[in-house]
Structures are given as structure tokens and as C-alpha cells.
Amino acid sequence: MPESKFKSHLAPWFDRFLMEKRACGFAYVVQENRLRHFDRLLVSEGLTREELPKRLVELWTAKRPNEKSTNQQARAQVIHQFALFLSRQGVPAYIPNTRQISGNRSQFLPFIFTRKDVGMLLRAVDQIPYQYRSPLRHRTMPEIFRLLYGCGLRRNEPLALTVADVDLDQGILRIRQSKDKDRLVPMALSLKGRLQRYAESFGSRSDDAVFFPGPDGQRIGGYCVYRMFRMLLTAVGIQHRGRGQGPRLHDMRATFAVHRLETWYLQGADLRVKLPVLSTYMGHRNLFETQRYLRLTAELFPDIASRLEKSYGHIIPRIGETHEF
Description:
With 325 residues, the chain is mainly alpha-helical. It has helices spanning 11-23, 29-44, 54-61, 69-88, 115-126, 137-150, 156-159, 189-200, 222-236, 251-266, 271-282, 287-300, 302-312, and strands at 166-167, 172-178, 181-186. Helices cover 51% and strands 5% of the residues. The chain has a three-stranded antiparallel beta sheet. The chain is elongated, with a radius of gyration of 24 Å.
């Protein structure tokens, strides 16, 4: 093991903490720098035992002159995570309450549909009638909504697909330049079969043709899908709570993630291994985006919440927390 960059009595614990975070897929570069500054504070304040006292934590997390609340929050969050780690190892540690210094950060929570809700929405979209002004709507919308939920796609990702992007032999979607990167998204066999039948109904098409065309053969607008979503909510009796309150169309994607994590957990899978897989599948920019769904999963399913917290509490962020990567 290389010589530690830390000098305080907590140096071995800093090293182990960083090893654990990086084993879970975090880069933790910025956070390591903050920890090294905190380590110097511990040395200068004369820490003589393996403990994390309240006085030193509060000294470190106190707001500095002319400091933005976001910077203060970032400093507090990394110490919050480190304190939780120490506590799990039996080392006395004061755990700061990061919610008290969370500033004005948005606390919006996604609306997670139940599986019964999803079933009702899909049955409703299957029943939309033919409309002469939009003669393909009753064929495209059922498949689009199944991709939004079944593959956790963002709203515009299925709309941007071309014929060449949909490999119906392998059952793989190629998502291009979404959040500045491409990714491959495998489909369930049932969804692959539906898209094969859908594609066959169009006959031969060029590779650059839009896979889900609008009335003019061009790409369907995102607002058309959102308007359909609102119609489906009304049809199945799910109340929309107003602008900014949801349910949002993007919540279909969040629902996919939560349902997938719940299924994996109940199957006995190691979520520390599965999280990077889900993160890559969904095209997240970093692992923290995916970890937030663990919090939702724990809160929505009380029967497994305590077990999730016990096994994975160190990688479940609190609502409102953010990290830099």
C-alpha cells in the first residue's frame, strides 16, 4: 500500500474511505482534495485520537466569509459521508446535518408510478383511436411509451431513432449524442418482438428514415408525446398536480430505475455491482445520478427500506445532496 497522503490520526481511515468510494465507481478527485485540507485542520487543531469530534466538524463546515452556500454544502457533504463511514467502522464520529446548510437547492421528488399504474397507462395508449390528422399516432405511441418505461429512455431519445439505430436482430437500440455521448441499450425480448412487428408493418425503409415518424414522415415533436402523456393520465385517473409538481413524462424514466433496483434487490443481487451497470444503461453522467434512485427505492418500499439502509446506507444519498465528479 502506498504511503498515505494524510498526516492526522485519522490517516488510515481517510485512505480506506477513498478506497471504498472508488471501488463503488466514484472518481473522488475533488473530494480527496477537500479531505486533505480537512486532514491538515485536524493536525493543526491537535487531534490526538482516532475520533471525529463535533467541534472540529463544525469548525470545518462553518460558512466562510463571502463563501457561496454551494461550496459550503460541498465541504459538508464529503465530511458527512466520511463520518458515516467512520461510524460504520466503530470509530466515534459526529455526523453533520447537511440539510441545515442545503441552501435553496430544489427538493423536487420524481413521481414513481406503481406497476399497476404503468399497466393502466400502457393499456390506455394501446387503445388510442386512429386519427386522420395523425394517421400513425395509434401505431407509434404505444411503442414510444414502452421504450420510455421499458428502457428508461429520456423523452427525446426514442424520437431521434432512425431505422439504422434499431437493431431488431440483436434487440439493441443505438442512442446517439444524448447528453454528449452515445450508448447501446438492449431491450427485453417482448419489446424486441413488438418493435419487429411494428417495423414489418412499414415494409422496406431506408436506414436514415425516422423509426417513429410523424404525419409528414419526419421526427415527432416532444410536445406531442407530452400531450399524449397528459391525456393518458386523465384516462386512467392519475391526477396531475400542476406545473412543476408532476407527474412528469420524465418520471417514466425514474420509475424504470426504481422498479429495476427493487427487482434486483429482491432477487438478492449486489446493488454495488449493479449500480454502475444501471448508470451506463441509462446514460448517466456519473454514478451519483443513479444512486439517488436508491433513496427513492428505500422510501417507496417500506418492507425493504431497513434492509436497504443496513446493507447500502453508505451509498444512498440523502434527498437534496449533490456531489461533484
